[in-house]
């Protein structure tokens, strides 16, 4: 059994120098970080904000850019402060780890990044804004909110649709509210024996009586097709998209013309097919024998 050593003395002075060195390093790091971050953020944030405002960027993008600038300045401040304080080895290890982590996150969040970038372009380019009725890839809806990742729309059945921004950015998109005026076109078919001029007058008269229909451009009703069972006249009217809605005006226009056609005896024929030719019946003896049985 080994005897315990007695009388071992501990000299506190041997720990003072390393402790002072560590405290000095930490204080130097904190001071350097605070100065670099404060000066860098004040200068860079103001520069970015003024530059984007001068180029008429959307306020949402300006706020995002300023916030991103603050994060970048903080990272740079940490790197510079660590270098000043003598944390070079730790900084190198941290940089390697951060690079690997950024690469992994980039692969895992490809769709998220794609939608985010698309959202930035949508907010800046403004192919549509809140309240616009848009159509894309066979879908349609009224824009409720444009976010950086998704766009929220309301359907005409009052359903909420959330669409990734990349889908809208890549699609051939129709904005029905982009222009101040919009044309409504409706096809009306009449019989081949009906008077085209009478039908055209009826369509134009009903269009002129309707509220919300512009007088310039004037309503028209040209013949656009000679169908299999009808002569097609296309009623064309124009509305102000800020004052009138497409759907209700179109519905009232169709109903008014239908009632006018009924009053004037204008036929709106159903599609039909006329078959011509001869029919030859063979083996009549077999049919007669069967009938006698």
From TrEMBL:
Residues 111-175 form the Mechanosensitive ion channel MscS domain. It holds the Pfam family MS_channel_2nd. Keywords: Cell membrane, Membrane, Transmembrane, Transmembrane helix. Residues 184-268 form the Mechanosensitive ion channel MscS C-terminal domain. The chain crosses the membrane at residues 20-40, 61-81, 87-109. InterPro entries: LSM_dom_sf, MS_channel_C, MscS_archaea/bacteria_type, MscS_beta-dom_sf, MscS_channel_2nd, MscS_channel_C_sf, MscS_channel_TM-2. This is Mechanosensitive ion channel family protein.
